[in-house]
Request: fold
Amino acid sequence: MADRFSGEDDFFRSSEIPVKAKIENFAAEPSVLTHAREVATELGAVAISAGVGNLLRTLVRAVSAAHVIDVGTGVGVSAGWLSLGLTDAGTITSIDLESEYQQTAKELLQDLELAPPRLRLLSGRANQVLPKLTDAGYDFMFVDINQFDAPALLADAARLLTVGGLLVVNGALAGSDSAAPELVSLISESDEFAAALVPLGQGLVVATKL
Reply:
């Protein structure tokens, strides 16, 4: 018997939609985060899927991340998932241009006991806020916004992350109206990161700081 999966495996012969559903629904989503995603829809904000959130939680736990940057707070869905993988004394610094969304996030995340000093909400554009953060002070960085200066953001990520830290970018397969694909391209060409593309949500790139 072969010791590896073959191309004839039932899972891989399934149609695209069932496969995606299996991946996205692999882990149960906490009810508070399901509610937060519903609130995001009501407010016209875009939130990550449960499948993306579960991957974030797993990666944060895998590297025992203590200090995380969340670029794109929204109503707190990504911060909530990230917090589930944090060490007990871990912190999340979350950045968003929309302070109104951050206020909603602050309220929703209380049910996960995610509040100051574990949660720091910074209002402003990522390219203006990131340069103010501490060099090599973070183990994990998640980027989930559309518009930014991609070269500057990558330079900030390289400066802010510890060696072995992870940079995860959502929207790798997004359209031309997003800067995420440009950032992904720069990551793939960078000598400072080793990266892989993950087909979840709008496409994720997971990169390790070398």
